[in-house]
Write a structure and sequence with these properties.
Layout: E1 11-12, E2 15-23, E3 27-33, E4 39-45, H1 47-50, H2 53-67, E5 77-81, E6 88-92, H3 99-106, H4 111-130, E7 133-134, E8 143-146, E9 149-152, E10 159-160, H5 181-184, H6 192-207, H7 217-226, H8 239-245, H9 256-262, H10 275-287, E11 297-298, E12 311-312, H11 329-338, E13 351-358, H12 365-383, E14 391-398, H13 403-414, E15 419-423, E16 429-430, H14 432-440, E17 444-447, E18 452-453, E19 463-465, H15 474-484, E20 489-495, H16 499-511, E21 518-524, H17 532-540, E22 545-549, H18 553-565, E23 571-575, H19 581-587, E24 595-598, H20 610-620, H21 628-644, H22 650-657, E25 663-664, E26 669-670, H23 680-683, E27 685-690, E28 693-699
Parallel strand pairs: 13-14, 13-15, 15-17, 16-18, 17-19, 20-21, 20-22, 22-23, 23-24
Antiparallel strand pairs: 1-2, 2-3, 3-4, 4-6, 5-6, 7-10, 8-9, 11-12, 24-27, 25-26, 27-28
Length: about 700
């Protein structure tokens, strides 16, 4: 449970909101209390989804269908309103912990309990499927444990049978590690996908491990599609059934009703150690929650102040004496007045820190130093403002690119109460263990440059990413081939030197049809020393464009040279790490005209970053390196979140506010409508190689 923020509604339909239970890409879930005292989990759909008439109509149909689902193991719908600007759906409140929480805290469940879990979840899925719905996100976090058995929750992303696995933005719906292969590959879906997910959940409950392991989402999806599950430790009596549930071919899986029949009679095995105490504690905590007071609006008054913003106070006597991070000097004046001050603005503003978790001396030193320089310039500019409500300093911590040292750095930063937020780590992969350290302490973590993460970042509450991960950069190439340089035939060269990386991008490009363009995929094995056969095939197919999908700079340059040698005269394209000085140097003339989709800007080419570029040259004697300008914007985003939060605990306020902040930086607009990544339209940029250098073309949607 998390306190309400100043932006949260105090009433939703008949329910008075008490606390936040969670938030995700589709909306926010609140604990609400009806006028009769009944508790409910109320999910409010975000306005950007509700603005889509198709989404609203689908949500209305699904809410009506969900209300008809009955059964002891499905949380019942208790109310809904699909006609308001932000539609909502209420279900009965279950005070038990999730299956994920229980297994994480105490490990695997006893075999009889796993059988009972499978039996009752299969019954729940049978009810869902009989109503013509698919759940599509069966996972430990969506299974709550009550005293008499499990409850399947969250039908917020349910879809009718026949729907594809992709949303309008072509992102996979569901949770990697529990998705069926057809979901990971964006194929047509049926009830069998939920049965596959059920099999994954049972493996997790029985062993404490996911059947397809940990790692970045793209890696886990790759294993799900191409590799067999790890079933070591699954009880022998359950192994045949779980193996059948995890069949790659949906036709080979049993139906939910068949699973329920196979496990029938397992009810007496429901025994979860410590569950009764956990349910009692959560029930007592929920029942003891008072109705929140609506926020009080304090109008500007008193002596001249830098701004005229209204200040939202915490509204209760307990907030008195707190210095609010809102409204510039006004906030400080209001706080002083509450303390019985004279009404004059205090001379000393609150001082806070932004931490930078970076590799400053190891293999990623260049990126780390770029972050540090950009952050320092941003903090200087913030402190020079006349309307600032607080001052900032930068705390830097160097992990030298070492995993163990990174954990120690995270612990030190998280233990510093003066830190509002942390930027980084600056490594290519945001490690899930590090993310968890910050998450556990409620510290906002802003990642600028990571290409992927091993964290369950979609479920995290204080973790956000300012760039699309590499697998999403293909959107920029698709746009280019659709709107800038259309071709009849595009040839994709999948370099299997890093199979999981290239598979994720290849899969993403396969899923997006380009009108009038035929896409051919040619795989090159990791052992291949050159790309001559693939280049010859591309020329023979008269391809107008060739897309190199891989992460090796040297192999990307080899591919470009082999294409030129084969007589290819079309456009070469790639993404991510391939665009590097070594590619331009090694490919030479063969690199000319190549187009790249990247997640960073060239600040020297942006009028909005002119002052930043000049300041960087003056202070550091060189133009800004890659990611320096993005780090500058990360500081600005954090500072704006601080200026606009009304929380009495600054650190908690920033963590709660940052993902709802819409910030116009020097490189892009930073908004987090659907995920903790920046909107793709403002976060993917195109470059074209011209006369031996990469020339910035701009945001992909504007090229």
């Amino acid at each position: 449970m998390h306190p309400l923020t100043s932006d949260d509604p105090r009433t939703i339909g008949e329910y008075r909101t008490l606390v936040r239970l969670g938030a995700g890409g589709m909306g926010v879930v609140y604990l609400g209390r009806s006028s009769g005292g009944t508790l409910a989990a109320v999910k409010v759909i975000r306005s950007e989804h509700a603005a889509d008439p198709g989404f609203r109509a689908r949500f209305r149909r699904e809410a009506e269908a969900a209300a008809r689902i009955t059964g002891p193991w499905v949380v019942p719908v208790t109310g809904a309103d699909t006609g308001v600007p932000e539609p909502w759906l209420a279900t009965a409140f279950v005070p038990g912990p999730s299956l994920g929480e229980v297994v994480e805290e105490q490990g695997m469940l006893p075999a009889p309990t796993v059988r009972a879990l499978g039996s009752r979840l299969a019954e729940a899925l049978t009810a869902v499927h009989d109503a013509g719905l698919l759940h599509r996100d069966v996972k430990p976090g969506n299974v709550l444990l009550a005293l008499d058995g499990p409850r399947l929750i969250d039908f917020g992303i349910a879809r009718h049978e026949g729907a594809t696995a992709l949303t309008a933005t072509d992102s996979v719906i569901g949770t990697p590690g529990y998705l069926a292969p057809e979901q990971a590959s964006a194929g047509p879906l049926g009830p069998e996908c939920d049965v596959f997910s059920l099999g994954c959940v049972l493996v997790y409950a029985a062993t404490g491990r996911r059947p397809f392991g940990q790692g970045p989402p793209a890696v886990v999806l790759f294993r799900t599609v191409h590799e067999e599950p790890d079933l070591a430790g699954v009880p022998a009596a359950l192994l045949p059934l779980i193996t059948a549930c995890l069949a790659k071919d949906p036709a080979d899986r049993p139906g939910a009703r068949a699973v329920a029949r196979e496990l029938a009679g397992s009810g007496e095995g429901w025994e979860v150690p410590g569950l009764a105490a956990a349910v009692a504690a959560r029930s007592a905590a929920a029942l003891a929650l008072p109705d929140p007071e609506p926020p009080t609006v304090v109008q500007d008054s008193g002596p001249p102040r830098p701004t005229r913003r209204r200040v939202l106070t915490a509204g209760a006597a307990g907030a008195a004496g707190a210095v609010l991070l809102a409204g510039g000097g006004t906030a400080a004046w209001v706080a002083a007045a509450r303390r019985g001050g004279t009404g004059t603005a205090p001379r000393t503003l609150p001082a806070y820190r932004i931490a930078l978790h970076a590799d400053l001396t190891g293999p990623g030193k260049a990126v780390g130093v770029a972050h540090e320089r950009g952050a320092r310039l941003a903090i200087d500019d913030h402190n020079a403002r006349t309307d600032k409500a607080f001052t900032l300093t930068l705390r830097t911590e160097d992990d030298a690119g070492d995993a163990e040292r990174a954990l120690d750095v995270a612990d030190r930063i998280a233990a510093d109460p003066s830190v509002l937020a942390v930027i980084g780590p600056t490594a290519e992969v945001a490690d899930g263990s590090v993310v968890s350290r910050y998450e556990d302490r409620g510290l906002a973590q802003v990642v600028v440059a990571a290409r992927s993460t091993t964290a369950e970042w979609a479920d995290a509450k204080s973790f956000c990413v300012l760039r699309p991960f590499d697998a999403s950069l293909s959107i920029g190439l698709t746009h280019y081939l659709s709107h800038v340089e259309p071709v009849e035939h595009a040839f994709l060269i999948e370099d299997r030197a890093e199979a999981q990386y290239s598979w994720a991008i290849t899969n993403a490009m396969r899923d997006v049809a380009i009108d009038g363009t035929t896409l051919t995929v040619h795989s090159v094995e990791a052992t291949a020393r050159d790309f001559a056969p693939a280049a010859g095939a591309a020329v023979a197919a008269r391809a107008g464009a060739v897309i190199y999908v891989g992460s090796s700079v040297a192999r990307g340059a080899r591919c470009a040279k082999d294409l030129a040698a084969a007589g290819f005269t079309g456009t070469g394209l790639s993404i991510g790490p391939v665009l590097a000085p070594a590619f331009l140097r090694e490919a030479g003339k063969a690199a000319e005209g190549w187009v790249f989709a990247e997640a960073y800007t060239d600040p020297s080419a942006l009028s909005s970053a002119k002052a930043f570029t000049a300041a960087h040259r003056e202070r550091f004697g060189s133009p800004p390196a890659t990611w320096a300008a993005e780090a500058y914007d990360a500081v600005g985003l954090i500072a704006q979140a601080g200026r606009t939060t009304s929380a009495t605990a600054p650190r908690e306020g920033v963590a709660a506010r940052i993902l709802r902040t819409d910030y116009q930086g020097i490189t892009r607009r930073l908004s987090f409508y659907r995920t903790r990544q920046v909107l793709y339209a403002t976060g993917i940029f195109l470059y074209r190689v011209d006369k031996g250098r990469a020339r910035f073309l701009g945001p992909y949607a504007s090229v």
